[in-house]
Amino acid sequence: MATQNGSKLDPQTLIRSCASFLACRDFNACRELAHSIPRLDTNIIVQVDQILTIVHVLCAAERRISDTNLDWYSILRLRREDSANRDLVRQQFKDLMRLLNPNTNKFPFADDALMRVREGWFVISDSARRASFDREIDEEMKKGASFWTMCPYCWYLHEYERKYEDCTFRCGNCGKTFHGVEVKPPTKDMMVEGKEQYYCYQVSLPCRYPVDENIRDSNGGIGSQSNGKRRMRIKTLARRVKMKGFIEANSDDTDPDVEQEGVL
């Protein structure tokens, strides 16, 4: 690699620059510079491979499959279809452990990358844990195929294919157009049992307020106070539950809102 004045930089100088980028977690700059370093001898080759391995593992660890699992296949540099090959998984694990060995790899975050690799091996090397992880991947892929959005005018939920995200839609309920911004899908506790409906809100608000201490007599005059005590009256507002239906994409169904009221 040449400088602006035409002189070439020493590979060790470039490796130190890579380490600086790595310490700042600037993975893109570190990777680009590492790939440009001339592999002149075995020592340089090993150091470059160590740097690139750290970058790869930490970048792969930024992708989370679920709340409990990272993308272990990417971290271990494996394809999902090859994961049942135990010999291949073991060899890949050994190669990564060799490159991330804390006794020889002194670059920043080598220990973090090593921990992620060990965690990946713990999941992928066990058939039961791997099967559970594969199911999580399949579930996430299904979720990623569509998204939920809500009409801001009538609060009806709509589900569309993911490719239509951020498009403009016409609500099948109120007929107004709105921007398709993704919202969280309805959870089980929101669902109305036995119906394609969900709860929008449910409010129960107790109100406490003082009662006038001056008690009027039967003739409308002001009588004596109630033994000098301050009385309070408690009133609970009506429980209001508003339910909405689902509108499928390109559907003309317009199920009406259902309101239920009752005194708690």
Automatic annotation (TrEMBL):
Q: Which SUPFAM superfamilies match?
A: Chaperone J-domain (SSF46565)
In terms of Gene3D superfamilies, this protein maps to:
DnaJ domain
Look up the domain of life of the source: Eukaryota
InterPro entries attached here?
A: DnaJ_domain, Imprinting_Balance_Reg, J_dom_sf
Specify the J domain's residue ranges.
71-137
Q: What is this protein called?
A: J domain-containing protein
- Species the sequence originates in: Lupinus angustifolius (Narrow-leaved blue lupine)
Its taxonomic placement starts with: Eukaryota, Viridiplantae, Streptophyta, Embryophyta, Tracheophyta
